[in-house]
Amino acid sequence: MFSHVAVGTNDLKQAKTFYDAVLGAIGYGEGVLRAKGDYVYVSDTSIFIVTPPVNGQAATPANGGTVGFQCQSVEHVEAWHAAGIANGGVSVEDPPGVRQTPAGKLYLAYMRDPDGNKLCALHRMAT
Question: What domains can be seen in the chain, in order of their start residue?
Fold first, then answer.
């Protein structure tokens, strides 16, 4: 459904370290620096971008916004969460685990990146 997601950062070096670890834990390569000074992470279906705001003002997290990453297994969710915490992320909400939702059983983990952006890792469990 989405072509790309972008989050702002006030510290591009720290953001790259964080996202290289977090996205690396679920099978993606390092961010690629583009000429305009942001980093992109590419999958077969979408692009994730970490960028200083183009208007030159400070980056702030979206109030109520969450960026969700689809994971292939519970182990990927756990590795994603551990990599984030080890690289400056902060765990939020409930600890990683199973949630029963109208969409079925999901294994979820939430954290905030070093800039305060709220992130989620999600694995859809067999019913």
Answer: 4-124 (3.10.180.10)
